[in-house]
User: Which sequence fits this backbone?
Protein backbone atom coordinates (compact mmCIF):
# COMPACT_ATOMS: atom_id res chain seq x y z
CA UNK A 1 0.00 0.00 0.00
CA UNK A 2 2.85 2.37 0.86
CA UNK A 3 4.44 1.81 -2.57
CA UNK A 4 1.06 2.51 -4.19
CA UNK A 5 0.67 5.84 -2.35
CA UNK A 6 4.21 6.91 -3.25
CA UNK A 7 3.57 5.94 -6.88
CA UNK A 8 0.34 7.99 -7.01
CA UNK A 9 2.07 11.00 -5.44
CA UNK A 10 4.97 10.82 -7.89
CA UNK A 11 2.58 10.36 -10.81
CA UNK A 12 0.53 13.36 -9.64
CA UNK A 13 3.63 15.50 -9.29
CA UNK A 14 4.76 14.55 -12.76
CA UNK A 15 1.40 15.69 -14.15
CA UNK A 16 1.64 18.99 -12.20
CA UNK A 17 -1.65 18.49 -10.36
CA UNK A 18 -3.10 20.75 -7.68
CA UNK A 19 -4.06 19.19 -4.33
CA UNK A 20 -7.69 18.59 -5.44
CA UNK A 21 -6.57 17.21 -8.81
CA UNK A 22 -4.23 14.83 -6.98
CA UNK A 23 -7.16 13.56 -4.90
CA UNK A 24 -9.17 12.98 -8.08
CA UNK A 25 -6.22 11.28 -9.77
CA UNK A 26 -5.86 8.99 -6.75
CA UNK A 27 -9.56 8.05 -6.85
CA UNK A 28 -9.46 7.28 -10.58
CA UNK A 29 -6.31 5.19 -10.21
CA UNK A 30 -7.82 3.35 -7.22
CA UNK A 31 -11.00 2.72 -9.23
CA UNK A 32 -9.09 1.13 -12.11
CA UNK A 33 -6.99 -0.89 -9.65
CA UNK A 34 -10.16 -2.17 -7.93
CA UNK A 35 -11.42 -3.53 -11.26
CA UNK A 36 -8.09 -5.21 -11.99
CA UNK A 37 -8.17 -6.78 -8.49
CA UNK A 38 -11.86 -7.71 -8.76
CA UNK A 39 -12.64 -5.61 -5.70
CA UNK A 40 -16.35 -5.08 -6.37
CA UNK A 41 -17.09 -3.13 -3.18
CA UNK A 42 -14.26 -0.61 -3.62
CA UNK A 43 -15.00 -0.20 -7.33
CA UNK A 44 -18.64 0.68 -6.81
CA UNK A 45 -18.05 2.65 -3.59
CA UNK A 46 -15.96 5.05 -5.70
CA UNK A 47 -19.02 5.86 -7.82
CA UNK A 48 -22.04 7.96 -6.93
CA UNK A 49 -25.34 6.10 -6.51
CA UNK A 50 -26.66 7.82 -9.63
CA UNK A 51 -23.53 7.14 -11.70
CA UNK A 52 -23.64 6.25 -15.38
CA UNK A 53 -21.09 4.06 -17.16
CA UNK A 54 -21.07 4.22 -20.95
CA UNK A 55 -19.21 1.29 -22.47
CA UNK A 56 -17.65 0.76 -25.87
CA UNK A 57 -20.73 -0.92 -27.35
CA UNK A 58 -23.34 1.62 -28.54
CA UNK A 59 -25.99 -0.18 -26.47
CA UNK A 60 -24.02 0.16 -23.22
CA UNK A 61 -25.46 3.09 -21.30
CA UNK A 62 -25.50 1.66 -17.79
CA UNK A 63 -27.26 3.25 -14.84
CA UNK A 64 -25.48 2.50 -11.55
CA UNK A 65 -27.61 -0.47 -10.37
CA UNK A 66 -27.78 -2.05 -13.83
CA UNK A 67 -24.01 -1.66 -14.23
CA UNK A 68 -23.44 -3.37 -10.87
CA UNK A 69 -25.62 -6.29 -12.01
CA UNK A 70 -23.79 -6.49 -15.35
CA UNK A 71 -20.32 -6.26 -13.76
CA UNK A 72 -20.82 -8.63 -10.81
CA UNK A 73 -20.13 -11.89 -12.72
CA UNK A 74 -16.86 -10.45 -14.04
CA UNK A 75 -15.73 -9.44 -10.56
CA UNK A 76 -16.82 -12.84 -9.18
CA UNK A 77 -14.43 -14.54 -11.62
CA UNK A 78 -11.49 -12.85 -9.86
CA UNK A 79 -10.61 -10.21 -12.48
CA UNK A 80 -12.96 -7.74 -14.08
CA UNK A 81 -10.87 -5.61 -16.45
CA UNK A 82 -7.47 -4.02 -16.29
CA UNK A 83 -6.94 -0.40 -17.34
CA UNK A 84 -3.60 1.31 -16.79
CA UNK A 85 -3.43 5.06 -17.23
CA UNK A 86 -1.00 6.29 -19.87
CA UNK A 87 -2.06 9.94 -19.71
CA UNK A 88 -4.69 11.84 -17.72
CA UNK A 89 -6.00 15.42 -17.73
CA UNK A 90 -8.20 16.77 -14.92
CA UNK A 91 -10.20 20.00 -14.95
CA UNK A 92 -11.99 21.57 -11.96
CA UNK A 93 -14.95 23.92 -12.12
CA UNK A 94 -14.74 27.23 -10.24
CA UNK A 95 -16.58 25.81 -7.18
CA UNK A 96 -14.05 22.93 -6.91
CA UNK A 97 -17.00 20.55 -6.35
CA UNK A 98 -17.23 19.15 -9.88
CA UNK A 99 -14.43 18.07 -12.16
CA UNK A 100 -14.10 16.37 -15.51
CA UNK A 101 -11.27 14.37 -16.95
CA UNK A 102 -10.02 12.48 -19.94
CA UNK A 103 -7.47 9.69 -19.94
CA UNK A 104 -5.65 7.45 -22.35
CA UNK A 105 -5.60 3.85 -21.14
CA UNK A 106 -3.66 0.68 -21.82
CA UNK A 107 -6.33 -2.06 -21.79
CA UNK A 108 -6.96 -5.62 -22.98
CA UNK A 109 -8.66 -3.92 -25.99
CA UNK A 110 -5.51 -1.93 -26.80
CA UNK A 111 -5.43 1.81 -26.25
CA UNK A 112 -8.77 3.21 -25.09
CA UNK A 113 -9.92 6.63 -23.96
CA UNK A 114 -11.87 7.22 -20.81
CA UNK A 115 -13.57 10.45 -19.91
CA UNK A 116 -15.97 11.46 -17.24
CA UNK A 117 -17.23 13.62 -14.44
CA UNK A 118 -16.38 13.38 -10.76
CA UNK A 119 -18.29 15.05 -7.99
CA UNK A 120 -17.09 16.06 -4.54
CA UNK A 121 -19.36 14.43 -1.95
CA UNK A 122 -19.36 14.31 1.83
CA UNK A 123 -17.31 11.10 1.43
CA UNK A 124 -14.78 12.63 -0.99
CA UNK A 125 -14.56 12.59 -4.77
CA UNK A 126 -16.72 10.04 -6.58
CA UNK A 127 -17.18 9.11 -10.22
CA UNK A 128 -20.58 10.23 -11.48
CA UNK A 129 -20.23 9.65 -15.21
CA UNK A 130 -17.70 7.58 -17.16
CA UNK A 131 -17.37 7.00 -20.91
CA UNK A 132 -15.04 4.34 -22.30
CA UNK A 133 -14.12 4.50 -26.00
CA UNK A 134 -11.94 2.34 -28.19
CA UNK A 135 -9.52 4.57 -30.06
CA UNK A 136 -9.13 4.18 -33.81
CA UNK A 137 -6.23 5.68 -35.73
CA UNK A 138 -7.49 7.97 -38.50
CA UNK A 139 -5.90 5.82 -41.19
CA UNK A 140 -8.06 2.84 -40.05
CA UNK A 141 -11.44 4.61 -39.84
CA UNK A 142 -12.71 3.49 -43.29
CA UNK A 143 -11.87 -0.14 -42.52
CA UNK A 144 -13.63 0.03 -39.14
CA UNK A 145 -16.66 1.77 -40.68
CA UNK A 146 -16.99 -1.10 -43.14
CA UNK A 147 -16.77 -3.66 -40.31
CA UNK A 148 -19.54 -2.04 -38.29
CA UNK A 149 -21.78 -0.78 -41.09
CA UNK A 150 -24.49 -3.48 -40.81
CA UNK A 151 -24.59 -3.25 -37.02
CA UNK A 152 -24.87 0.54 -37.16
CA UNK A 153 -27.62 0.49 -39.79
CA UNK A 154 -29.63 -2.09 -37.82
CA UNK A 155 -29.26 -0.13 -34.57
CA UNK A 156 -30.15 3.18 -36.26
CA UNK A 157 -33.30 1.57 -37.69
CA UNK A 158 -34.23 0.09 -34.30
CA UNK A 159 -33.66 3.38 -32.44
CA UNK A 160 -35.56 5.42 -35.05
CA UNK A 161 -38.47 2.96 -34.89
CA UNK A 162 -38.55 3.14 -31.09
CA UNK A 163 -38.56 6.94 -31.26
CA UNK A 164 -41.55 7.11 -33.63
Assistant:
Amino acid sequence: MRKYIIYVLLLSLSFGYTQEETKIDTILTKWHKAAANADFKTYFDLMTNDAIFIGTDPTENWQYDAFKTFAKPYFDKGKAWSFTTLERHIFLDHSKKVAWFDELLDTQMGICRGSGVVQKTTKGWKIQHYVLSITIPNENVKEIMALKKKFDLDLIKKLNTARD
Notes: Strands lie at 47-54, 61-63, 84-92, 98-107, 110-121, 124-134. Residues 2-139 form a domain with the Nuclear Transport Factor 2; Chain: A, fold (CATH 3.10.450.50). The CA atoms of residues 42 and 72 lie 13 Å apart. The longest helix spans residues 141-163.
